[in-house]
Design brief:
This protein is of the alpha/beta class. About 45% of the residues lie in helices and about 20% in strands. The protein has helices at about 15-30, 45, 55-60, 90-100, 110-120, 145-170, 185-190, 205-220, 235-250, 255-270, 275-285, 305-325, 345, 360-365, and strands spanning about 5-10, 35-40, 50-55, 80, 85, 105-110, 125-135, 145, 170-175, 195-200, 225-230, 290-295, 330-335, 340-345. The structure holds 6-O-phosphono-beta-D-fructofuranose. 6-O-phosphono-beta-D-fructofuranose (F6P) binds near residues 135 and 177.
């Protein structure tokens, strides 16, 4: 029987986390008379037993607040940095939860959190997860909370860029988050009426992008908006990425694995200003003045949208029900507007990318938006 639930939030913060904490906590207290604690700063709080009691008072007024009242962190449970050393702390965390009387741990997070939660499940913890991230890239769910709010912010930014682009007859290149997937850039690009949208799933040909901008100019358009996903790759970069993936897969010794990780990290750091370089390149090729806007963490900030609150609340309440029934090692997913229980083993380690035949891709193409290919 589940008498006590622990909650933690991990990975990047996202709007809707507090709504989910509140939903899990209130339904656990009110419908099942459970005790609820919240661990602070992600998995590290569980390791250090830093926690707060979540009762009616501490959960009051948090529905509309952005961020997470619990704090978050990106620590990995099997590779925690402790006093300058990297250590596997899975067993210590399971022991901590047991000694505190926590029967079920609910972890709110994105892809990395799903993996960490499964690692703890394999070490003996009863775990349930919820899918949170502005990237919308968690496998097994149609939607993650945080995405809708970020979509509103990115769309408004594109709307605002239109008036200045139009006035100065410029190329406005706007970088949108999304990690290695293009959900946010594609959705906000369509909703905001961008002329070109570049996403990682469709590697771009710089000549094709420049040509599409010149065609617009020839047809009388005196400005263009280019929405670039932070993970967007040119054809050359996509080919290099493929090589790095092969290198990682072929690595069998620890040295080879480390070399593959380093090569990937070098590649990533060399791309940190790729949107700026892209804008310079397009300006040089088209002769049209270009400006760059990097939206960055603004996209994760502020009050969650009603849609995100609703989603986080629905999924949170279902997490409590599953815990009460003793159904663990699952993620609560949103499918066809219903909260469903998906085995965590299926979710962890997978990523949901934009399928090339997705209705949004088809819509963008039929509208004549450039996708860079
Ligand atoms: O996963 C959410 C996200 O905002 C990604 O879109 C982005 O790549 C990353 O987190 C940024 O991470 P950090 O907050 O650690 O800079």
């Amino acid at each position: 029987m589940t008498r006590s639930i622990g909650i933690l939030t991990a990975g990047g913060d996202a709007p809707g986390l507090n709504a989910a904490i509140r939903a899990i906590g209130k339904s656990a207290v009110r419908s099942h008379d459970m005790k609820v604690v919240g661990f602070l700063d992600g998995f590290r709080g569980l390791l250090e037993k830093r926690h707060i009691r979540l009762d009616s008072e501490s959960m009051s007024g948090i529905l509309t607040r952005g961020g997470t009242i619990l704090g978050t962190g990106r620590a990995k449970v099997h590779k925690m940095s402790i006093g300058g050393q990297v250590m596997d702390m899975r067993e210590a965390m399971v022991d901590n939860a047991r000694s505190m009387g926590v029967d079920v741990l609910v972890c709110l997070g994105g892809g990395g959190t799903q993996k960490n939660a499964l690692r703890l499940a394999k070490a003996g913890m009863e775990v349930i997860t919820l899918p949170k991230t502005i990237d919308n890239d968690v496998w097994g769910t149609e939607r993650t909370f945080g995405f809708d709010t970020a979509l509103n912010i990115a769309t408004e930014a594109i709307d605002r860029l239109h008036s200045t682009a139009h006035s100065h007859h410029r190329l406005m290149v706007v970088e949108i988050m999304g990690h290695n997937t293009g959900w946010l850039a594609l959705a906000s690009g369509i909703a905001g009426g961008a002329d070109v949208v570049l996403i990682p799933e469709v590697p771009y040909d710089i000549d094709a992008v420049a040509e599409s901008l010149m065609r617009r100019k020839a047809a009388g358009s005196r400005f263009s908006i280019i929405a670039v996903s932070e993970g967007a790759l040119s054809l050359e970069e996509a080919a290099r990425m493929e090589e790095l993936r092969d290198q990682k897969q072929a690595a069998s010794t620890e040295e080879e694995k480390e070399a593959a990780r380093e090569a990937r990290a070098d590649f990533e750091s060399g791309r940190s200003d790729h949107t700026t370089r892209l804008a310079e390149d397009l300006e040089a090729r088209t002769g049209i003045e270009a400006r760059v806007t990097i939206l960055g963490h603004v996209q994760r900030g502020g009050t969650p949208s009603p849609k995100d609150r609703l989603l986080a609340t629905r999924l949170g309440v279902e997490a409590t029900e599953a815990a009460a029934e003793g159904h663990t090692r699952i993620m609560i997913a949103d499918r066809e507007r219903t909260a469903v229980r998906v085995p965590l083993d299926e979710v962890a380690g997978n990523r949901r990318v934009v399928p090339l035949d997705h209705p949004w891709v088809v819509t963008a193409r039929r509208l004549g938006m450039g996708l860079g290919d």
